[in-house]
Amino acid sequence: MRKHRMNMIQGHEQYKMVYETLNEAFRAKHNLVNRDEFVEKYGGLKNDASDSSTELAMEYKTLKALKPIYSESDLSTAKENLERNFSPDILPVDKYHCHLTYVKGQSNYYNAVLLQSYTRPDALISAQFPAAGSTESLFRLLKDFDTSVIVALSSLTDIESVYTNSFLPQEQSSITVGSFILTHKSTLKTPNVSKTKLVLRKKVNDYQMFGRSYLINLQIRNTCTQYFLFVVSLK
Fold first, then answer.
1. CA distance 143 to 7
2. Which residues contact 166 (CB under 8 A, 6 or more apart)?
3. Domains detected in the chain
4. Pairing of strands 209-219, 147-152
5. 0.85 cut: is pTM over it?
6. For 33-46, how does the pLDDT look when each residue is reduced to its tens digit (9 = 90+)?
7. Among candidates 141, 116, 145, which has minimal Cα distance to 128?
8. Could you report the per-residue pLDDT of 80-126, keeping only the tens digit for each?
9. Do 76 and 95 form a contact (C-beta atoms < 8 A)?
10. Is the dihedral of CA 21, 23, 26, 30 positive or negative?
């Protein structure tokens, strides 16, 4: 780089960017798979045995090696709200934390972080299943970030049996949590996914409501840890 692009760097930030780009390029192997090879490649990864020598395990090891390391100072907001998290080991980094709109007498904290997609730096939100007393904060998150889809990575029935903290209404009924009303509209069940349409409204006063529809996709299979996460997509 110095030999062929000696005048490429114009300042400290550019030098840092080039260094990080080259560092990642050298550490991460080339994983491009064309369309014709994808199905076969994906099938092979799915059939891998659960040991540390498989290709899937090696890719996961590489991915973990590229993961940034954060210090205690990067988790200051979460540390101040430990009682609002399921685990002290799964905490949001301040830089990516989703802060809720200020409401008098309520916390603006919820365990949720912004995630990037291949097109946008803030396309997704990863958030925890609502801990006891934080269901209203989840509804505030949905409203504040204008979300329209929630994907649950595990069966809600399994999680709720552990935490006894159901936030979904029964079929064709509603529940009220704080200033929000959540109404069940319909459910379509398939072999692997249950799709439920809900309407979330926020009470402004006894006569006015904020309302919009949310399509919630519930994964039937229990495939994640007890610290259940949502992945919430932004509109």
1. 48
2. 156, 160
3. 12-65 (no CATH), 73-234 (3.90.190.10)
4. parallel
5. no
6. 888 888 888 777 76
7. 141
8. 998 888 778 889 999 999 999 998 888 999 999 998 887 888 888 98
9. no
10. negative
